[in-house]
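fwd from M.: "can u put these together and see what the complex looks like"

so here's what she sent:
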Amino acid sequence: MSETLKIAVINGPNLNLLGKRESDIYGTLTLEDINNRIREFAIGKNLELLFFQSNREGDIIDFIHSNSSVQGIVINPAAFTHTSVAIRDAIAAVSIPAVEVHLSNIYSREDFRKDSFIAPVCVGQITGFGYYSYIMGLEALINHLT
Amino acid sequence: MSETLKIAVINGPNLNLLGKRESDIYGTLTLEDINNRIREFAIGKNLELLFFQSNREGDIIDFIHSNSSVQGIVINPAAFTHTSVAIRDAIAAVSIPAVEVHLSNIYSREDFRKDSFIAPVCVGQITGFGYYSYIMGLEALINHLT
Amino acid sequence: MSETLKIAVINGPNLNLLGKRESDIYGTLTLEDINNRIREFAIGKNLELLFFQSNREGDIIDFIHSNSSVQGIVINPAAFTHTSVAIRDAIAAVSIPAVEVHLSNIYSREDFRKDSFIAPVCVGQITGFGYYSYIMGLEALINHLT
Amino acid sequence: MSETLKIAVINGPNLNLLGKRESDIYGTLTLEDINNRIREFAIGKNLELLFFQSNREGDIIDFIHSNSSVQGIVINPAAFTHTSVAIRDAIAAVSIPAVEVHLSNIYSREDFRKDSFIAPVCVGQITGFGYYSYIMGLEALINHLT
Amino acid sequence: MSETLKIAVINGPNLNLLGKRESDIYGTLTLEDINNRIREFAIGKNLELLFFQSNREGDIIDFIHSNSSVQGIVINPAAFTHTSVAIRDAIAAVSIPAVEVHLSNIYSREDFRKDSFIAPVCVGQITGFGYYSYIMGLEALINHLT
Amino acid sequence: MSETLKIAVINGPNLNLLGKRESDIYGTLTLEDINNRIREFAIGKNLELLFFQSNREGDIIDFIHSNSSVQGIVINPAAFTHTSVAIRDAIAAVSIPAVEVHLSNIYSREDFRKDSFIAPVCVGQITGFGYYSYIMGLEALINHLT
Amino acid sequence: MSETLKIAVINGPNLNLLGKRESDIYGTLTLEDINNRIREFAIGKNLELLFFQSNREGDIIDFIHSNSSVQGIVINPAAFTHTSVAIRDAIAAVSIPAVEVHLSNIYSREDFRKDSFIAPVCVGQITGFGYYSYIMGLEALINHLT
Amino acid sequence: MSETLKIAVINGPNLNLLGKRESDIYGTLTLEDINNRIREFAIGKNLELLFFQSNREGDIIDFIHSNSSVQGIVINPAAFTHTSVAIRDAIAAVSIPAVEVHLSNIYSREDFRKDSFIAPVCVGQITGFGYYSYIMGLEALINHLT
Amino acid sequence: MSETLKIAVINGPNLNLLGKRESDIYGTLTLEDINNRIREFAIGKNLELLFFQSNREGDIIDFIHSNSSVQGIVINPAAFTHTSVAIRDAIAAVSIPAVEVHLSNIYSREDFRKDSFIAPVCVGQITGFGYYSYIMGLEALINHLT
Amino acid sequence: MSETLKIAVINGPNLNLLGKRESDIYGTLTLEDINNRIREFAIGKNLELLFFQSNREGDIIDFIHSNSSVQGIVINPAAFTHTSVAIRDAIAAVSIPAVEVHLSNIYSREDFRKDSFIAPVCVGQITGFGYYSYIMGLEALINHLT
Amino acid sequence: MSETLKIAVINGPNLNLLGKRESDIYGTLTLEDINNRIREFAIGKNLELLFFQSNREGDIIDFIHSNSSVQGIVINPAAFTHTSVAIRDAIAAVSIPAVEVHLSNIYSREDFRKDSFIAPVCVGQITGFGYYSYIMGLEALINHLT
Amino acid sequence: MSETLKIAVINGPNLNLLGKRESDIYGTLTLEDINNRIREFAIGKNLELLFFQSNREGDIIDFIHSNSSVQGIVINPAAFTHTSVAIRDAIAAVSIPAVEVHLSNIYSREDFRKDSFIAPVCVGQITGFGYYSYIMGLEALINHLT
């Protein structure tokens, strides 16, 4: 891992409310708290991280398009997991290895949360470990890329 | 109802065309006409109303997030009713009582209009009464909150 | 609204137990309490109200047939919502504007409660506001008829 | 056909409104008109006819049970066609040959009208010929029994 | 019924084997026996009958097209009932009133025999009465046309 | 079991025909025979039994409502098992422990007999043991209550 | 019941954990406790009981095969209820009357627990009465066999 | 075609990446290349063309609303084809004839790409001809409009 | 396009009735009218056209097999679109580029018209533009082949 | 096997193209090659073979009907496997033992190739062994018949 | 076929009961009878046969793993056909050509017996010919391997 | 993390073949290689690891039961993911936090691999990262437990 890896950390809709919203499902950390933990984890690992959150499907697509120089993507598509063919197509189009992560275990919630349009075009999926899903997503990407 | 209730009235995609579009389904009132009728109804009721319309899912989510001080939401999600998990999650996240309203009777139209992602996280749903669905949505909210 | 409107308020099976049954779902008001609130609401509105409750699909159909002079119907079909094609056909046959109401939010309960045979032949549907669903159903009818 | 055949003609819910209701679907004849045409048809055919109409599933079942001496049944179950396992079981239980008839063509209407719980336990089904479906049902029964 | 009615009696695949094949389901009459019974029935009724049987979907379509001067069609599409959109379209195209008939009760057999592509474009359907289904189909047509 | 248990034994549609109807499926005992066996079983067990049979969904609901002092219910809903949300709601409403019983094994018959609206709100279900299903239902209730 | 009945009591996967596992669903009795209650029940009834529990589908099949001299089987297939065609075939193959029992009410749990591969080849099914389901299963078998 | 036709050419999400992305599916032309070919085609045809691409559902809706003076729309909704009820409603609302086009043959790809929310409100659909789908879409519109 | 392209134009069942049949759906042009327009379009384009129509699936397959020297196929399979695996296999077998065309917009009609067995083995599909669908199909083929 | 067995070998649509078409799926042998191998196999086995291939469902049905003296049928229905109820009915009607064969493994191809209308009325099915499926079909028939 | 082929013949659950169990479905031969017929067939064919039967999915997987030197597998997975992804994966993993065989015609039995997890990873499937299915499976393998 | 964590690493069917089997899907590492990498990772982390692999559902259940003193489970259920309710129940019964891991991305493979019976009772799921899925599973468990 001699050269710097540039990795985007993308968060989908409503994740800006983390820590303030349904803490029984999503935990008490804010998105900034999570990002800080990711930053801490990255120390000394020769990583350059781009953080991005949006409640807009289109902004996430644009972000993916305009950051085609990143080597990897960690993405929590949140609600878009189940509804966005467009983000799926964006990830497939740029051909950047991506890891889908989720805070909660989407397999123990409503039925419609079991289907992901995004997962089939990702390297893999990590779900259920709270903020630690992101840390592992990052690790998995580093491992995949090196 | 001694203190002022602050209530958001949110309209989803294409409702800005009301009155100009398919009047056999949606009636001849413009959205501004409807808003005026809502304002009239509100007179003397100690209500503060925030009107918002957008054709963008993300703008509606942002609006909901940034108006977390409102006590209630009347929302006509229009087409997003059937496709937006993200708006559902936004309403669930902010924990503000919401009422879903529809101008037309969505149960006598195409099959895909029968399913609502939004209704399960609302207090209730009112459908089929034209502009009056909004008036009743407002009434229902006031009744619910007081 | 110069002339008297004659409106039937019809309640389906088990609603005679209201207030005594699962109060976490249906509230603590008895059916008579609800009817009284409807009567109060009607004061000065030049309305003539016919109240009817039955646990029998056939009685409800007969009631609808033999009261064909009413100008409107507010109906909470309860369990028949999901199983009675016959009440649907009765409402369609008499061509009297009807409003379907529900105390609880049927969209946040068991899956089989999401489908209504009745709603497609009604003017609209109001669900989730407890006794107030009836008041609004009445209002909606008045608004629709005048 | 030397001895008298006793045949029951049973009509399900809302058929008492025939002629007064949706005449575009069901025609302009009243149920009494139809019964008279059936009586006319029966003249000289050594038939004894029992006419019965009810909006109650239970009354139809009781009628079937208590008329177990009839040799055949012509039944238009109307809405119960699609919802009544109990009438199906009643017909199967009494082992009297039955013919299901319908005024309208149930295969060119709503999807839910395509499924019949009753038809599988009948000799056959006749659908779409207005009042004449009954005449043919009677003929088919006579032919079947003689 | 002063002028002669010209009516086509069309039989689909395998019905040429009637009487020789599975007699427990279809009875012991041959197709010619059935046609003779139809001819007998027609005596004195001012009918001109065209009999046609084919195991070929295309021949049936051609026959329908080239006999567009008939006033009515009695058709037992047999296996094509469940698979032929083309015959459905042919009947719809020529706008000749048609009656679908079946020897056996298709509703008490395999599941795939419950769906008919043909019935929705016919006046009606008669099923389950053996050869008598044809007699009644003819009667129904005469009644419909006069 | 020192104090008397009052238990209702409810039978649904067509069970009044027991012994006279399809004995290959339901056996040769009449309903009165079964009730007598239940009475015999009850001797010396300090039980007070209320027997009720109806072909009417509404009567069964009324019976349940008006016997809210019973400590338990043994119910064979027969055809209503698969179609009655209203009886389900009635049992749930009165909060009396109920046991669903069936004479035949409903899992080796038509597919539509596999689904029960009633079972989820009962203590349990017993199916397939002829009249003995009732005896066991009673035993199960006694065991549950004491 | 003069001669001894030999009956196998078979328990499927995870039932060895009974009493130690999710006691809110399955109760606090251990499997040995249940077996003792069954033994107690059997006293004086001229029964010979074979108890068997396994977490292996194959062992249960082998047990059924090699105990073909038993006159009856009481089986709680647990998880195998919903997944084992092989146990179904084993029971069908040996032609020994079997009764399926369940501790919990499988109809008020996850959807996939509603389907049983085993029930259609059993005499009947008893579900929801805790350890008492076994006692009744035994009774039902004795009644069935004598 | 004496007067100028004003036609909008709308492209949905990720089509800005054309030529750079999965060229095995979508070909090597960039969106600008395609637009140039469309412009070439338009020469001398008295057409005024408005080109629009967005990765945002809302922007596409706004564009449609604010260009209600165009006589026709050629739209490649890309991923939104399968998920956007809102764009469907926008096209239906403005009542401008639209043609849905696709570069690839959506019927030989993933199952979810077979369903279009947009096609039913369009004049027609053209799929599978690469950039030429647009040329033909334009031609079809001109033909439809003149 | 220096050398002559030989292209087959194949029409499926009932299209011989065009212009005489349901003109609200299919327009007033006869098939010969359409063929003439295609011929006109072909003038000067160095095309050799083979026109073929049949109401027989087998004839269409034979035609495809015995014209394996054509460079392209324009096919309107009509009803066979939704039912013919055999024509699908024929097109796949001969490996001649084919374009599926439809006069009407099959996506705004009955549900069963939405599925095409043919489209996945074609270059593409054009639907909804009346006779002009054929012209465009031809153009698309020429473009595809040159 | 002292007396001659007369066996029909029937091939469905497109199989006349064998060897010339998709050889990766169906191999390089022509149908005549396969028939020759079958003839070779038959030498000395006292078999009389009738070879028949058609792209027409109706011809196959006619062939089956008019060769009712054969003792067995080997049939590769090809595409008709999945669409022809009529061939199914033909085989069931003539009551001649039939074996369904396929060159390719239909269970590892498109989903719609998994369902066979023909197999349930055959003795058995052999799929996946290229031309050898026919040889085995013949063997299986001989074994079945002798 | 100069060198010896080593082939495993694997039988799944309950097949050890063959001949003793449901002989109307599976015939009167025991598994040992069948194996002897296979041995007879193999005489002089330079085959080495390994016979294996187990009621345990895991044993079958282990057997497949530890016999990776065989050149082919004939497997009757019995009940595991419909439930075992693990045996499917085992066959796919060892990359040994396998043939799935069945005694009975699985396509004319219960619906759940129509789906095979195993067939898609086999060379082919043979079903319905009693013990002869094995003989043919062996032949097919030999043919496939040589 | 002062005290030793005891963690079980469980592998399901066919994973003993890792490295020897389909390396395009599962990679070239053997199970022992993977276990060694896990051991390496564990160095200095105060972990005690129990490795277990079995091709038997029952052995895995027994292992889980008899190691109830472990604090966590990393499980790759392989094929049992999609078929084993029994392992699901075992994990739920012992109440030990478990993490489901997969080598390949199960969401980009066959449809039946998308459903997991196990995931809903686990803390979370990690899929698609080859051997690294295990490392992360371990990490996730440690993080969850400390």
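replying to her w this: Residues 5-145 of chain G form a domain with the Rossmann fold fold (CATH 3.40.50.9100).
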